[in-house]
Input
Amino acid sequence: MPTSSSTRLTPLLTGLAFLGTLGLGDAFAQTTAANTLTVQVNKPGAPIQKTMYGLFFEDINFAADGGLYPELVKNKSFELDEHLLGWRGIRGAAALTTYTVSSQQPISATNNHFLRMTAATASPDAGFINEGFRGMGVKQGGEYTFSVYLRQGPGSVSGLNVILEEGRAGNGPEAGPSGKVLAQTTITGLTSAWKKYSVVLKSSGTAERARLKLTMEGAGTLDIDVVSLFPKDTYKNRENGLRTDLVQLLKDMNPGFLRFPGGCIVEGRNLTERYQWKETIGDVASRVPLVNRWNMEFKHRSTPDYYQSFGLGFFEYFQLSEDIGAEPVPILNVGMACQFNSAELAPISGVAAGGPNASSSHNHEDDDPTLETFIQDALDLIEFANGPASSPWGAKRVAMGHAAPFNLKYIGIGNEQWGPQYLERYEPFMKAVKAKYPKMNIVSSAGPSPDGELFDKATQRLRELNAEVIDEHYYAKPEWFRQNVGRYDSYPTTGSKIFAGEYAAQSVAIGSPDNKNSWDCAISEAAFMTGLERNADKVVMASYAPLFAHVDAWQWTPDMIWFDNLKAYGTPNYYVQKMYSTNPGTTMLPVQRGGNAKNGEDNLFSSATADDKTGEIIVKLVNYSTAARPVTINLQGVKKLGKTGKATILASNDLNAVNSLEQPMNVAPKDESFKVKSSNVTYTLAPNSFTVLRIPGKR
Output
């Protein structure tokens, strides 16, 4: 039954008196006071940069080929070191008299291998099957553009039979038996010269592991090259576009930037295997593939068939950045191979402060590049992104279909290098870029560890060189993230800013194949990010890593977005990142806790911003405890309060909870409204929860 205020108050006072006799009264009062947060709306801090929360893409875990880049044919041009990788002769190619990968009169100098098949007699088994990337994902009613270059040889081969069929589980030494036919056609009109043919296949069914079967119609010899099966359903329906559902997951995050193409992929295990952006633009069929440096890095997840086709190249990265509204942040090799591998170094010679002057075109024939080669690549990249059509590299961008500049503002010099070898290369590199492009913001590296002598020396020297942005990385246990929420509180407010370029909580250990994208990891990252937001005057960029992983072809865990050949899902970590990036606000607001409690004390974490565009105060709260927690938020100096706020809650009672393809929304945000009665807003946080409150009120 209802009771009066005095009736309710009496047992509370009695209880406090009893606690006092036990010496617990002060502790109880302090805990209660600590649940009061004062958001100083009338004392705004630094602006929240547009780049505050973004994305880091690296081609690991089949993130590009077999993932974001939706080409279904593996090794379409037979240019890999193992020329028939991904291809299998039907029943061991028994119906073929001979087959070989030849380079006799190829399509071009860069695409100089092709498959030559010869059959003495006509047979429905005279051909090959391509397995795709752990199979080919096709959808019922989906349309797929098949294209190929063919050349008719001696004999009476009249056509090429193209069959899209359901595959079988596993990858045996030969391709067979055949599965259900999903689409088929025959290409005719062959000539004795190379000619490109194209046809659209419409699938009659859905299959996660389909495969492509190509057989000769008739007997004789047929040359085949640049075999492609590409979905028509791509983002913005582009001919060489990207996988729609994966791009949409990125765009939904409202990212401030896209860092690409890595990561250690930039460095290569040696300099010959380094990423060279100039080899990834222009005609897709002419882009020379390269081994992926992650293919054999981990013995527990060896992936010898992992190559980069570069169908997703630098032009496509810039285009993707534009599509999702993110600033492009390309990272370039600084003349160092991965220090965890060969640590090969390009010599420093012939580099003046102003940098090289001659514009080079391609580097694949440069066996002994000096630092000058890498610097010139950077200068040419900026011209490619921002230069006019009258410039050599700007003209190449325009020829690819993008007349307007990409408005590149950031460029990274080196990925995750450390030690004096990096700093002695960084300095002339930086000076050369600044001499020609003084307004370019340069991202520099503090190394792979967030502390230690090498980290300290790099940070000190980079600050002395007035580096705009210093990239810090940290992979650690979940508790590290909660314990280091105040990491940037003592950083200087002037000079170099911080890019938290790679971070992710590791549930087991760094690099362990048993790591999970658990709620414990995600909520710990959410807690840490309150410290990033509270220090928006020092931290201007942040991104989780890695971004993507194929469920059947990963090398590293944990990862933010998982996918198979047909479906994808966001992890709890994805939703934490999304809640931050879609609720950034425009201005940081100081937050103080009652009882002089620090951020994170008693496992309560908080940050706040003002959104001057919408007229709202945004408060982010993490309750890392098994009990619900009532909080009072004092909006000091707020103006024009509204009556109804919006809460977005991400919570689970199970810290080991994960999402999956079968349960993609097991841990996912839920929205609810709440009443705002005064500038003292009360709200009860769910156990083990990350909550974003949007309160209508102006500063």
Q: What stands out?
A: Residues 87-233 form a domain with the Jelly Rolls fold (CATH 2.60.120.260). The CA atoms of residues 626 and 687 lie 5 Å apart. The chain has eleven helices and 34 strands.
